[in-house]
Amino acid sequence: MSLEITFLGTGSAFPSPARGASALVLRREGQCWLFDCGEGTQTQLMRSHLRAARITKIFITHLHGDHFFGLPGLLCTLSLQSSPDASKAPVDIYGPLGLRSFLWRSLELSHSQLLFPYAVHELVPTPDQCPPEEFKDFSGWDAGEGLPRGPPGRVLHLDPGEDSYLLVEDEQLAVRAFRLFHRVPSFGFVLEEKPRPGKLNVQKLKDLG
User: Fold this and answer.
1) pLDDT at 145
2) Does domain 4-207 bear CATH number 3.40.50.2300?
C-alpha cells in the first residue's frame, strides 16, 4: 500500500501570501483524502501535483474557520469539474457535529447545486472536550424548520468504554477519530495499517536449513 502526504497549508488563524491555512492531502492508491480545508485550499491544490477530482474523503478536525472555511468553495469547484453521475459514490465528509448544517446552509444560501453526491458524517463530542462556556450543542439546530435536512450521513457517538470513533475500515486499514482538547470540540485522526501476512514458504525454508 502506497501512502503519500502533501502539505497544502500549515498556517494558523489566517492565510498569508506564502503560507496557506490548514490543509493536507493523503494520497492512497489513486484516491486523495483531504484533512482540513482552510481558506485557499483549492488554490493550493491547483499549485500542487494533485488532482482535486480524486478527493473521495474529507476530514475536518474542528469548526474554527481556518480549518474549514475553504470547504464550500472547494466542493463548488469540484462540481464545476464534474458531470452528473447518479451512480458515483458520494464524497464522504467527516467532522464535528454542526458541519452538516454549515454546509447545507452555505450551499443553499449561495444557490449552489453540486453535480455529485456527498455525505456528512458528524462526530458527537463529549462536553468535557472544551471549556463549558465554549461547548454548544448543535444537534437540534435544524429541527422543525420544515426544510430539507441537507445531505445524508451518519451521526457517530463515542461508545461507552471506547476511546475512539471508527470512521472507515477496509482490508488494508482503519481510520479512527479521537478526541482532542481545545477551545472548541476537536478531533484528531489516525490511520491504522492492518498486519500483512508474510509470503515466505516457512516449511521450504526449514527444509533448506
Assistant:
1) 57
2) no
